[in-house]
């Protein structure tokens, strides 16, 4: 059976997840922001037969079940907290005398353990089928990388001292990054997980100070909001810009992890300064590979790199003809962490016959093993003046003093060339009259490119911070 969780972020997600896996079921999580129609569609796609639901979302769930045509009886609807006479709850299950199986006698290598959905940056989110082997492989490869860092690079083990570390997450648990941070990372690090139901800049800082957080797992969008709404004060604390009397101590933070989307170089430098030069690790991963694939060194991050490919993985880069190259091309990954396939797919695409997942990401692997990303292959533009990467244009635009955020898309012109459009969010110091100056400025730095600029209130992004370019197009 597929067991779905339909709830805002809740510490109980971890117990539900491991309970479902131990019982031999398939776990999936539904975004609580989905409307009735979207929830009904997700229930149908996954064929969920049991649902854990937050009481506040129960009416919407019941309406979705009625619309979906699925037969989910009230006995298969379980509240994540509280009590209603018609439905059981986790608390009531806790009081049930039941001995779980000591061993799950199934083909764990190929048995689907969970269905997690992609962020949908290039279109509709797709269900990714991940096996028990995928989960164990991901957990051990992260442990292997950490061991390498500690033994070879002689780096300290975060949270391995006498005092237990405390990790803070405000990540969505229905996406693979947030799921792994809550369910798997604490098992390896031994950290105590502190979970926020949603991100709020002021509350985030309050929690860091109150619980003496030692490690953060966040996204570029979280850092962007922090740096926009707060400022570092002279006493080392962080103050709210609209009320400088509100100050919070973030000096307990010893390590910062960032994933879910690319982090521009200037934001990386801001992270160092904001958190008192605590090590910042940029992680790269895919839902199709059960989260993380590569990460930076804790102490010596290569400038511009996402880090090295984690152990137990095979990586190659191929050009547009499928031939391996030392230059930029499509990153392909093989290993025990690669998904079984997409839910409902009729083919094995994008997994090749020899087991390589074609990620769709444009990358280069240099001699020392560091991986450099240029974004999606669909964001590599072949113009009459040569190849232009959207990522390069965006990073350069972020250096302009009045640009707060930006995203670049392209379309084909009538003469067969490519025209680039940079959507720009101006800072509070910027004005519409300065947009022409921004266009001229970027034209001087990205020579030969046909680029226009358009002002926009905000760049559409997924909850993990990835740009939803298909909406801009």
TrEMBL record:
Q: Is this entry keyworded Cell membrane?
A: no
Q: Which InterPro entries match?
A: AMP-bd_C (IPR025110), AMP-bd_C_sf (IPR045851), AMP-binding_CS (IPR020845), AMP-dep_synth/lig_dom (IPR000873), ANL_N_sf (IPR042099)
Domain AMP-binding enzyme C-terminal residue range list: 393-466
The organism is Coemansia reversa (strain ATCC 12441 / NRRL 1564)
Q: Hey, which family's this protein in?
A: Belongs to the ATP-dependent AMP-binding enzyme family.
Name of the molecule in the record = Acetyl-CoA synthetase-like protein
Q: Which UniProt keywords apply?
A: Ligase
Q: MF terms per GO, please?
A: CoA-ligase activity
PANTHER family according to UniProt: AMP-BINDING DOMAIN-CONTAINING PROTEIN-RELATED (PTHR24096:SF149), LONG-CHAIN-FATTY-ACID--COA LIGASE (PTHR24096)
Record keyword Transport present: no
Q: Which Pfam family, any one, appears in the UniProt record?
A: AMP-binding
């Amino acid at each position: 059976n597929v067991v779905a969780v339909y709830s805002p972020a809740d510490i109980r997600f971890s117990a539900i997840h491991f309970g479902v896996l131990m019982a031999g079921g398939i776990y999936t999580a539904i975004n609580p922001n989905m409307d009735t129609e979207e929830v009904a569609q997700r229930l149908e796609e996954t064929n969920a037969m049991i649902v854990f639901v937050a009481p506040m979302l129960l009416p919407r769930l019941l309406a979705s079940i009625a619309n979906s045509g699925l037969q989910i009886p009230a006995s298969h609807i379980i509240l994540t907290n509280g009590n209603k006479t018609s439905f059981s709850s986790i608390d009531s299950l806790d009081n049930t005398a039941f001995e779980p199986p000591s061993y799950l006698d199934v083909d764990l290598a190929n048995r689907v353990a969970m269905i997690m959905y992609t962020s949908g940056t290039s279109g509709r989110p797709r269900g990714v089928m991940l096996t028990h082997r995928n989960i164990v492989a991901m957990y051990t490869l992260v442990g292997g990388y950490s061991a390498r860092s500690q033994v070879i690079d002689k780096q300290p083990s975060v949270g391995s001292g006498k005092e237990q570390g405390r990790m803070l997450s405000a990540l969505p648990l229905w996406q693979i990054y947030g799921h792994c941070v809550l369910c798997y990372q604490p098992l390896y690090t031994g950290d105590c997980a502190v979970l926020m139901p949603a991100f709020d800049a002021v509350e985030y800082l309050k929690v860091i100070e109150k619980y003496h957080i030692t490690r953060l797992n966040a996204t570029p969008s979280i850092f962007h909001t922090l740096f926009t709404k707060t400022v570092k004060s002279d006493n080392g604390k962080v103050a709210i810009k609209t009320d400088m009397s509100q100050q919070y101590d973030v000096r307990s933070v010893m390590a910062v992890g960032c994933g879910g989307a690319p982090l521009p170089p200037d934001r990386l430098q801001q992270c160092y300064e904001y958190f008192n030069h605590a090590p910042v690790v940029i992680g790269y991963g895919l839902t199709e590979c059960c989260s993380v694939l590569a990460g930076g060194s804790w102490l010596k991050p290569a400038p511009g790199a996402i880090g090295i490919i984690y152990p137990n993985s095979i990586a190659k880069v191929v050009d547009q003809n499928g031939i391996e190259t030392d230059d930029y091309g499509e990153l392909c990954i093989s290993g025990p962490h690669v998904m079984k396939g997409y839910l409902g797919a009729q083919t094995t695409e994008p997994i090749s016959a020899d087991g390589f997942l074609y990620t769709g990401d444009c990358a280069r692997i240099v001699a020392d093993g560091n991986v450099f990303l240029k974004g999606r292959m669909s964001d590599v533009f072949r113009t009459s003046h040569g190849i232009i990467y959207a990522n390069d244009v965006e990073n350069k635009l972020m250096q302009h003093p009045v640009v707060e955020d930006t995203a670049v898309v392209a379309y084909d012109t009538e003469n067969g060339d490519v025209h680039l459009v940079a959507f720009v969010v101006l800072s509070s110091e910027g004005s519409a009259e300065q947009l022409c100056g921004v266009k001229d400025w970027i034209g001087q730095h990205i020579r030969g490119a046909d680029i226009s600029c358009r002002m926009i209130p905000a760049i559409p992004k997924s909850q993990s911070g990835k740009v939803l370019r298909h909406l801009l197009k």
